Amino acid sequence: MNHGNTKVCSDRVPDEQEISELRAVHYNAAVVGRIDIHDDLARFQIRPDRGVPRFAPGQYVALGLGYWERRLPGTQAETLPAKKHWRMVRRAYSISCPLVDASEALVTCDDIDFLEFYVTLIRTAEEPPALTPRLFALHPGDRLFVQPRVVGTYTLEGIAPHENVLLLGTGTGEAPHNAMAAALLKQGHQGRIAVACCARLADDLGYTRAHDVLMNRYANYRYLPYTTREPRNLDSSRGDYVGNERLQTVYRSGRLESEAGFAIDPRTTHVFLCGNPLMIGLRRGSDPPLLEPGMLQLLLSDGFREEGEAGPGLVRYEKYW
Ligand SMILES: Cc1cc2nc3c(=O)[nH]c(=O)nc-3n(C[C@H](O)[C@H](O)[C@H](O)COP(=O)(O)OP(=O)(O)OC[C@H]3O[C@@H](n4cnc5c(N)ncnc54)[C@H](O)[C@@H]3O)c2cc1C
Ligand SMILES: NC(=O)c1ccc[n+]([C@@H]2O[C@H](COP(=O)([O-])OP(=O)(O)OC[C@H]3O[C@@H](n4cnc5c(N)ncnc54)[C@H](OP(=O)(O)O)[C@@H]3O)[C@@H](O)[C@H]2O)c1
Questions:
Q1: Per the count of CB atoms within 10 A, which of 107, 109, 148, 178 is most buried?
Q2: In the chain, what are the domain boundaries?
Q3: CATH class held by domain 164-319
Q4: For the chain, how far is it from start to end, CA to CA, in angstroms?
Q5: 282 and 319 in contact (C-beta within 8 Å)?
C-alpha cells in the first residue's frame, strides 16, 4: 500500500525518514498556541493550512495524529502491531473559544484565525487511550491532522433574541458552550445566558477568568462554576461546606435556577447539555441501568422535550463518550 510517496510496510515500524514523509502526506494544520491549565488539561490553538473553515458555534471536528507519534511519558503503555504504526487515530473535538482577548474584549470564533480546543488528557482507560497521550506531547510548531469539514447539529438554531439559554457542561464539555455564549453576546442576545460548568476541582475550570470578565460586562450573562471533589464539597465540618455540586444536585435543589437568575421554564428556556454521558443521562445498550437520573430525565419530567422543533423547551445534548 502507498500513502502518498510513503510505502507502508506491515512487518516493521516506520523509520525517521518515513515518519517525516507520513507527516507531510497526512497533516494539514499546525499547533500555533498551547495554554496549559494544569498537567492534564490544556487549550490547544490550531491553524489549518488552508485557513479556518466556516462553522456554527457548537460544532466539532476530528483531530488526528499518527500512531507513529510518541506518547507523553506517564501515560498508559500501548502495544500495537507494526502495521498500525503507519496509520492515524482521529477523535472528535468541540470547537471552543477564548472568550476574551488580551485587552479583555469579547472574542468570538469569527474573530480569530485558529481553532481552539479544550482537552483533558486521558492517561489510562480500559483500552489504552490513543489520541490525547500524543496530543499532549505536541508544542507550538508541531503538526497534525484537522478534518477539513466541521460538523454537528449541537448549535444555536431556533433561538429567538429574547429567550433564555442554559448551557450545562461537565469538564471539557464547556468547550462548545464557550463558542455559543460568545456568539450570543456578540449578536446582542437580549434573553439571559447562563453557562454552568461542573468539574472535579476548581483548578479544572479552565476559563473562569474569561467568564468572570464577561459576567462583569454583560448584565444578562452568568457563569456558574461547580465542583464535586474540593474540601468544601466533601468535609461537612467546614464553614464553607456546600456539599456535592453535581448538576443534577444543584438543579433539584433550586440552586441552579436561583444562581442562573431566571426561571428554568420550558416556555422560555433552551437547554444544552454537554460532556459526561451519565450527567446527560445516556447509557449504551450493554451498560447497567442508570444509578441516578441524568439532567435529561430531570428536565423531561419538568416539561422539557428531547425532540421536535427547535424552540424553547427543547433539550439538546452532545455526549463525549
Ligand atoms: C462530538 C464529540 C466532541 C468531543 N469534544 C471533546 C472536547 O472538546 N474536549 C475533550 O477533551 N474531549 C472531547 N471529546 C472526547 C474525545 O473525542 C476523545 O474521546 C478524548 O479526547 C479521549 O481520546 P483518547 O483517544 O485519548 O481516549 P479514548 O479512547 O477516546 O477515551 C478513553 C476514555 O476516556 C474517557 N473520556 C473521553 N473523553 C473525556 C473527556 N473529555 N473528559 C473526561 N473523560 C473522557 C471515557 O471514559 C473514554 O471511554 C469529544 C467527543 C465527541 C464524540
Ligand atoms: N479512564 C477513564 O475512562 C476516565 C473516565 C473519566 C475521567 N478520566 C480521567 O479523569 C480526568 C478528569 O476527567 P474530568 O474530571 O474532566 O471528567 P469527568 O470524570 O466526567 O468529571 C467531570 C465532572 O462530572 C461529574 N460527574 C461524573 N459523573 C457524573 C454523573 N453521573 N452525573 C453528574 N455529574 C457527574 C464529576 O463529578 P464526580 O467528582 O462526582 O465524579 C465531575 O465534577 C481525565 O483527565 C481523565 O484522565 C478517565
A1: 178
A2: 2-146, 164-319
A3: alpha beta
A4: 32
A5: yes
Kindly tell me if the per-residue pLDDT of 64 is higher than 80: yes
| pLDDT bracket for residue 1 (50, 70, 90) | very low
Kindly list the distances between the CA atom of residue 176 and the CA atoms of 95, 132, 257, in Å, as whole numbers in the listed order.
6, 18, 21
**pLDDT above 70: residue 105:** yes
| Cell output for 28 | 494539514
Q: Helix or strand or coil: residue 236?
A: coil
Ligand 2 centre from 32 Cα, in Å? 28
Cell 439571559 locates to: 192
> Best mutation site among 63, 67, 122 for ligand 1, i.e. most ligand atoms within 8 A of its Cβ?
122
Tens of pLDDT, residues 125-147: 999 999 999 999 999 999 999 99
Closest CA to 267 of 232, 224, 215, 304: 304
194 grid coordinates: 447562563
Instruction: Tell me the C-alpha distance between 106 and 8, whole Å.
Output: 47
What three-state secondary structure class fits 203? helix
- The answer, yes or no, to whether any atom of ligand 2 lies below 6 A from the CB of 164, is no
Amino acid at 266: P
pLDDT band at residue 284 using 50, 70 and 90 as cut-offs: confident
How many A from CA of 276 to the centre of ligand 2?
Answer: 7
Is CATH 2.40.30.10 the right assignment for the domain spanning 2-146?
A: yes
How many whole angstroms separate alpha carbon 118 and alpha carbon 122? 13
